[in-house]
Amino acid sequence: MSDRYIARSSAIAARMLGGEMMIMSSVDSTFYTLNEVATVIWQAADGRTPLSEIVSALVSQFEVEPEVALRDAQQFVDDLSPHGILLVSDHPIADSSPRSAETA
Amino acid sequence: MSLVQEMNERAIELGVPLSVHLDVTYRCNERCVHCYLDHDDHGEMTTQEIKQVLDQLAEAGTFFLTLSGGEVLMRRDFFEILEYARSLRFNVRIKTNGVMIRKAEARRMVNLGVEQVQISIYSHRPDVHDAITKLPGSLKRSLEAIRFLQSQGLKVVIANVLMTANRQDHAGVQALARELGASYTLDPTITPKMDGDTSILGLRISGSDLHAVLRNPDLVGNVEEFCAPPPPPGDDIMDGYPCSAGHTAAYISPYGDVFPCVQFPLPTGNVRKQKFKEIWQDSPALHELRSIRARDLPVCSTCSHVGTCTRCPGLAYMEGNMRGPSTADCEQSFQRTGIPSANMLRKARTNASGPLIQIQAAAAI
Ligand code: SF4
Ligand code: SF4
Fold first, then answer.
1. Helix H or strand E encompassing B79
2. What ipTM was reported for this prediction?
3. Which of A26, A31, A32 sits opposite B113 (nearest CB)?
4. B310 alpha carbon to ligand 1 midpoint, in Å?
């Protein structure tokens, strides 16, 4: 899993609301909210940062054990990728989403 | 509570304008008989101004963005605006008549991740539809647009405004929606013009037609439930606020004016003079609006319908008092349940008792 890359799909809407990320897929209008940890993973999902690096960032930011961070990241990928709002690849992915726009 | 409702609750707590309706122009290629707009261009916001407004909305936390008009595609820069809005990750819905949407436009909308397109269809009969839009061939063009959008996989909602001219055509339009794979929504309310002119209200369907619509299971689902007498309102109803307008929703005109809702022309500020967030947070009119609860409504708080009525404070405002009843909603509540509204009873009493003072010129006695 350490050599995997994740990227936000361009077919989504996203906005921060009170520390949580709201996401809506324009493909099937499914609505998601991400908690604080998932929001951090989402914001780091730029297609260039390896998942292992994202997990390390979680470990230091939330002071959790590496296994816990790894499990959270794995669950995040498993939950979101089947809906097409998160792209997963063994190689870096070109990212089209301007991160700053979502963080307001 | 659904996730979206939860987000709404949170947006209220945090004072976030979650949904904004932005009309990019009032110009239009149709001339619908019931339209409430002045179609002349009185100085629309430039592309740059609109982009700045979109930046400000993203910063204020707006998530749902409806782009509408007039006809949005009358603006040559519409796709530039749309692309910019999507780069800011708004959930974008577009309201259009579809006349200018061909295959290329449909493909661009899909590629830009538009969530939904709403197109107005008045009748399945070209003569009736085109007589309302006053644009020959418009039904054909709008239906082609729906097909282009649907074939690209974009969600289409057919909006069917009902008035005297098409009062019998909702079943035909509904069947058309089914055939095209589009959703269908019906609106029996004609609103006054933005300048307060009420002449178009004569196009509203009659009470008996409204009665039939509100008791049609194809339109309302479970009629018994829908038309049931209202339960007595509890404290939660009396402490509730009327609708999202000004609480989590706002409207911005092509000239930058900010209102609580497209149907609620209460002036609150202009984004050409002030930042949107300042208006949203500091406007005295918005503060006043937000303070109103059902128990503060002088007539409606005494009405048995208060908990179930669709009372629109914007229509009430256009009738002269945003705390007052909205006649169109009184009529709907009455036609739905058969129970007269407090407003109707009040008017009947006033009429029965006659004028307080009668004066007649001495010469006529
Ligand atoms: S009830 Fe009226 S003012 Fe409120 S959101 Fe609906 S249309 Fe707008
Ligand atoms: S029916 Fe009329 S009076 Fe009663 S709550 Fe609705 S708008 Fe107010």
1. helix B78-87
2. 0.86
3. A26
4. 9
Ligand 2 center to residue B296 CA distance, Å? Answer: 13
Task: For residue range B279-311, list pLDDT tens digits in order.
Answer: 999 999 999 999 999 999 999 999 999 999 999
Contacts of A27 in chain B (CB under 8 A): 153
Asked if B35 contacts B28 with a C-beta cutoff of 8 angstroms, the reply is: yes
Task: Judge: A29–B3 Cβ closer than 8 Å, yes or no.
Answer: no
Rounded Cα gap, residues B346 and B303, in angstroms: 10
Candidates B84, B88, B76, B71; CA nearest to B23 is B71
Helices (H), chain A: 36-44, 51-62, 66-80, 99-102
pLDDT in tens, B232-252: 899 999 999 989 999 999 999
Read off the amino acid at residue A30.
Answer: T
Among all ligands shown, which has an atom nearest to the Cα of B347?
2
Going by C-alpha positions, the residue among B72, B66, B108 that lies closest to residue B90 is B66
CA distance B85 to B51: 8
> What is chain A's alpha carbon radius of gyration, rounded to the nearest angstrom?
13
Q: Which helix (H) or strand (E) is B130 found in, with range?
A: helix B126-133
Give the A:B interface size as CB pairs under 8 Å. Answer: 65
Which letter does DSSP use for residue B300 in this model? G
The ligand 2 atom at the shortest distance from the C-alpha of residue B299 is 3
With beta carbons less than 8 A apart as the criterion, state whether B235 and B307 touch. Answer: no
Phi then psi for residue A86, to 5 deg, are -130, 125
Residue with tokens 């870096």: A92
Residues A5-84, CATH architecture: Orthogonal Bundle (1.10)
Do residue B7 and residue A22 have CB atoms under 8 angstroms apart? yes
Specify the pLDDT at position B364. Answer: 43
Residues 6+ apart with CB under 8 A from B86: B92, B112, B113, B114
- The model carries a pTM of 0.92
* Torsion sign (Cα): B220, B222, B224, B230: negative
Question: Would you report the helix, strand and coil content of chain B in percent, each value rounded to 5?
Answer: 45, 10, 45
Q: Which helix (H) or strand (E) holds B250?
A: strand B249-252
Query: What SS3 class is residue A9?
Result: coil
The ligand that comes nearest to the alpha carbon of residue B328 is 2
